[in-house]
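Entry 12.
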Amino acid sequence: MTMTKKGIERWKTLKSQVVFEHKWYTLRRDHVELPNGHVMDDYFVSVRPDVVLTFPLTEDGHVLFVRQYKHAAADIFIELPGGVIDAHETNPLEAAKRELLEETGYTTDDLEPVLQVIDNPTKDTNKIYYYIARNVREVAAQDLDESEHIEVLKVPLQEVEQMIMSGQVNVAGSIALCLLALRKLGA
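Predicted 3D structure (tokens):
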């Protein structure tokens, strides 16, 4: 594939102001000038923390998924374990280990970075760090937040692709990481 430069330019931010700030959500209003000179004073951006997502594989070839209710979509979802990188955390890999342990009770010393992606570059600021965790083992009980009720599912590696294709796993980040991990693992 050949890509030609088409003169795409960045927008200029003339002014930014936080219009809503809460421990779980920050909304920023940007005043921007487009390359063609047009000015917009109402471009809203969700300022979100970065996130980690892990594809945890047990020694006997099972992938751990978490099943839980997600209120914004008002449904129960099967997805890979992950979560927000806390403000005090500087290493996404350590955050991935922490989230895996909290949500599943499993850990590993074999965590491999796969890819860093942008979830929604139109409106959100955050990145997602994808990891494959090999040889995960159960070492503790789950350590869940007050709002979390999580069921841990152990799925044979060879069934993961069918779960995606049948729509059982339908969260975009989990689908992407599953497909990347399956390819990387040669599964």
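Annotation: The longest strand covers residues 127-138. The chain has a mean pLDDT of 93.
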